[in-house]
Structure formats: structure tokens, C-alpha cells
Amino acid sequence: MKIELFVNNPFRESTILLYDETGEAAIVDCGCYTLAEEEVLSAFLREQGLTPVVLLNTHLHIDHILGNRFVKERFGLLSRAAKEDEYLLACVPEHAVRFGMKGVSAPPALGSYLKEGDMVAFGHTELRVIATPGHTPGGLCFYHEAEHLLLSGDTLFAGSIGRTDLPGGDTAQLLDSIRAKLFVLDEKTRVIPGHGPTTTIGREKSSNPFVRP
Question: Exposed (0-12), middle (13-18) or buried (19+): which is 125, by Cβ within 10 Å?
């Protein structure tokens, strides 16, 4: 499996593209906001001969779903995410105005729901869904066990954790999600967060100041 990252929108959100030797790809947290950002992603897909077959969201905050309409219109895909976060879709236009973002309409409805233990497949690759509520009620992570890879969304960052001061956030729940669901993974697991640099489970267990025993 190969990985390509695209940093998008004013929030510097990490849009993640996963693909394998079959040419099938998964787009995770498509944050494309401008036409230029859409074209960068589209150009990479064309150049690599890739076909997106699944769109995933770790959660449904505005910065992680700005590109969902683009993906629907260009590739015919609807997002798969947690039902508990579905209510956030209706908040997108209001949040866009609050952040001074123009031309943002309500995103498409979800195509299907994901929950703890579900498997998501593309090509020869499977990702396991790990439910990690706390940043949002329906926060999810995606885990590829064979390659020790975790897409943590805004649950866990390098040296930090997701904010919990937004509606639906719960600090105790987030910390429990990290300790019970993520810190039990192999310490060499590479973590790709929704913002900022990559890290590892081992590094965060030993040095993350927000998650102490």
C-alpha cells in the first residue's frame, strides 16, 4: 500500500490518499477547498492511473469534509463515516460563514455508516475501523495492521490530542479512546493525524503530555 498526503484549506488539514498495486484508491478526509487544491489531487490520480473507490471521513468537522462534494461530483462517491457525527453536516454552511469561507454549501449526505470493527476494502487492502469518540461523538480511526499504520484524524496528534471545547467534545471520553483503543496497538505503528506531522504510538505513549497514566 502507498500513501500520499495533501495539505488543504485554511486549517492545513491532511487529506490522505491510500492506494495499492490494483490502482484502486481510498480518499480519507478530503479537505479540498479551492479549485487549485482539487486539481492537485485530480492530477495525482491521473498521473498515477488511480481510481478512487471509497471516500472515508474520520469525523465530520468542516475542515475534513470540504472536498466531499467535489469527490461526489468527480468520482461518484459518497462519504462513509459514523452515524453519531451525521448531525454535523447541517452545521457546515454556518461554520463556513463564521470562519470567513466563501462558496461553501452543505455537503452531500453520507453514503453509509461505519462503526467499531467494520472493515473497509479497496483493491487488495483492508482497513479496520476503530471508534474513538471524544473530539466528536462519532470520531473514527482507520488501521492497517499488516503495515502498522493508523490514520488518527483529530483524535491523536504528535505531542497533542484533539480539542474537546467544540460542541460534542468530551475530554474524558477522548482520553479513554486513546488509552483503550490506540495505545494498545503495536508501538511501532505509524500515526498519520488530521493535521501536522506524523508520529508513532510508542512515541506518544512515552511523551505525549496530554495522555498520562
Answer: buried
- Report angle CA 156, 98, 68 to the nearest 5 degrees: 60
Cell of 22: 490494483
Question: Is the pLDDT at 213 greater than 80, yes or no?
Answer: no
CB 114 within 8 A of CB 151: no
Question: Which H or E run includes 200?
Answer: strand 199-200
**Homologous superfamily of domain range 2-207:** Ribonuclease Z/Hydroxyacylglutathione hydrolase-like (3.60.15.10)
Write the pLDDT tens digit of every residue in 21-41. Answer: 999 999 999 999 999 999 999
Contact 156, 166 (CB under 8 A): no
Place of cell 467534545: 169
- Please give the pLDDT value at position 103: 87
Q: Could you tell me the three cell numbers for 38?
A: 482539487
* Contact of 158 with 204, CB cutoff 8 Å: yes
The position carrying cell 505525549 is 208
pLDDT at 129: 99
Cell of residue 181, nine digits:
483503543
Domains of the chain by residue range: 2-207
Phi-psi region for residue 33, left (φ > 0), alpha (ψ -120 to 50) or beta?
A: alpha
